[in-house]
C-alpha cells in the first residue's frame, strides 16, 4: 500500500474524491470488514458545507490543505472530529483530536486489511509513526 507519508511532494493534492458534497459509501465494507460502531465512532450530521471554521486542514512546506468538514465523531463526544477519503488501495482517516481544526492524527487502512497511523508532533511539525498492523 502506498502511504501518503511517502512521496507527497509540494503541490500534490491529497488523495480523495475532492468533492465534499459527494456521497461516500462505507469504505470498510469494500474490504470485507463489517465494523460495529456502538461506542467507537458515531456518524453525525455535518456542518454546512460553506462553514470553513468546521473544516479540517493540514499543512506541508508552507502550504495549507483544506480537507473539508469533519464527518465522523471518533471519540463520541458529540463533535465531528474526523473525515475519511477513499483511495485506490484503501482509505485514510484524518483526525483533529484537540479541536483546533488541524489534523493531528492520520490512519491509513489498506484494502488488504493492513493499517498504519501517525501523529503530528506539535513541537517539530513532523509526523511520528504510531500503531500499525492488520485488522482481523
From TrEMBL:
InterPro entries: DUF6802. Signal peptide: none annotated. This is DUF6802 domain-containing protein. Residues 48-136 form the DUF6802 domain. Residues 1-32, 68-99, 115-136 are annotated as: Disordered.
Amino acid at each position: 500500500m502506498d502511504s501518503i507519508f511517502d512521496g507527497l511532494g509540494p503541490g500534490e493534492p491529497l488523495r480523495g474524491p475532492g468533492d465534499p458534497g459527494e456521497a461516500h459509501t462505507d469504505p470498510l465494507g469494500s474490504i470485507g470488514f463489517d465494523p460495529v460502531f456502538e461506542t467507537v465512532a458515531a456518524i453525525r450530521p455535518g456542518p454546512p458545507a460553506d462553514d470553513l471554521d468546521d473544516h479540517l486542514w493540514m499543512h506541508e512546506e508552507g502550504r495549507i490543505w483544506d480537507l473539508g468538514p469533519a464527518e465522523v465523531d471518533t471519540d463520541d463526544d458529540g463533535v465531528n472530529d474526523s473525515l475519511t477519503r477513499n483511495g485506490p488501495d484503501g482509505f485514510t482517516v484524518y483526525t483533529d483530536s484537540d479541536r483546533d481544526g488541524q489534523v493531528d492524527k492520520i490512519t491509513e487502512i489498506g484494502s488488504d486489511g493492513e493499517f498504519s497511523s501517525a501523529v503530528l508532533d506539535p513541537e517539530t511539525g513532523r509526523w511520528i509513526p504510531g500503531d500499525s498492523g492488520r485488522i482481523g
